[in-house]
Specification:
With about 300 residues, the protein is mostly helical. The chain has 16 helices and 2 strands.
């Protein structure tokens, strides 16, 4: 795993290279800032549930999902007007919004070139995944329709924006290994579920942690709904009136943001959110029951535990 991830890291930088120094520097900016490489890890682990694997195809599959993910981060930072990404100034701050958007497009193009080398089935799945990413971003931007449950709307957004690409990561690994249809479906379901859990745990960390590489309360300030805030807004306790008022405000003042974070950290919504993360992680773990036992399955099971642990 470590050897393969080292190769993937090197090839990521190669694929992000442009024809000018500016494009190369901007396109490698987020990659150089590091990251968990969760999607490539899933590709590699999922490749253990079939037959013999072509090493080059495996690397290509991992590159496709990570390039797609990194590209989406450039666009997300523009839409969120972010200042920091992975502990470094965001690309839209270091350069400008238009450059960040175009660099994201460039990386999507690099992902498309790479997936074309894998074949039509991979191209089709990548295109469908990209459509879900965009659909989820539009749904998040527009917000829930009148009368729609905001929490249900948000979970649909998370499934499209995060779950879809992580599901594709697991599927790519299985496809490269020639896994059976039953195994592929289990990997897809596991990837979707663990992807949603991964994002919900990030929701909690955005409020509870001061060492994430992002400014605490970024989603709060940008008015992005998350699991803890939506749960807090559902409360009918009069004591929560101040917190609900703050959540619904623009939170441009640092003092207001700090007060909101402090109130949320003490609110039962955090424990409720953690319980939901643990429940969904259990569902994801159950998806693995059809997979052959061995180190790869054990590693996927441990991922379920790690996602829960990181939110506490």
């Amino acid at each position: 795993m470590q050897d393969r991830l080292a190769v993937i890291e090197e090839r990521l930088l190669e694929r992000a290279g442009g024809q000018t120094e500016l494009v190369t520097q901007a396109a490698q900016h987020i990659i150089n800032a590091g990251g968990k490489r969760f999607r490539p890890v899933l590709v590699v682990l999922a490749s253990h549930f079939g037959g013999e694997v072509d090493e080059e195809d495996l690397i290509r599959a991992a590159l496709v999902v990570e390039l797609t993910h990194v590209a989406s981060l450039y666009h997300d930072d523009v839409m969120d007007d972010a200042d920091i990404r992975r502990g470094a100034p965001s690309a839209n701050r270091r350069w400008q919004n238009s450059v960040a958007i175009l660099v994201g497009d460039f990386l999507f193009a690099r992902a498309s070139t790479t997936v074309a080398e894998l074949g039509v089935d991979y191209v089709h799945l990548q295109a469908e995944t990209f459509a879900r990413l965009v659909h989820g971003q539009i749904a998040e931007t527009i917000g829930p329709a009148e009368g729609e449950d905001p929490l249900a709307h948000y979970l649909d957004v998370v499934a499209d924006k995060t779950g879809s690409l992580i599901a594709t990561s697991a599927l790519f690994g299985g496809m490269v290994s020639g896994a059976s249809p039953e195994v592929l479906e289990a990997l897809r379901q596991f990837g979707e579920d663990i992807g949603i859990v991964f994002q919900l745990s990030d929701d909690i960390i955005d409020i509870t942690s001061d060492v994430t590489g992002k400014t605490p309360g970024t989603d709060l300030r940008e008015g992005v709904p998350t699991l803890p805030t939506l749960l807090a807004l559902r409360s009918t306790d009069p004591a929560d009136a101040r917190l609900q008022e703050l959540i619904r405000s623009d939170l441009t003042e640092d003092a207001d943001l700090a007060e909101t974070i402090e109130l949320l950290r003490r609110h039962p919504a955090i424990d409720e959110a953690r319980a939901e993360v643990a429940r969904r992680a259990g569902v994801a773990r159950d998806r693995l029951g059809v997979l052959p036992e061995g180190p790869a399955r054990t590693a996927l099971e441990e991922l379920c535990d790690q996602v829960v642990t990181r939110s506490t």
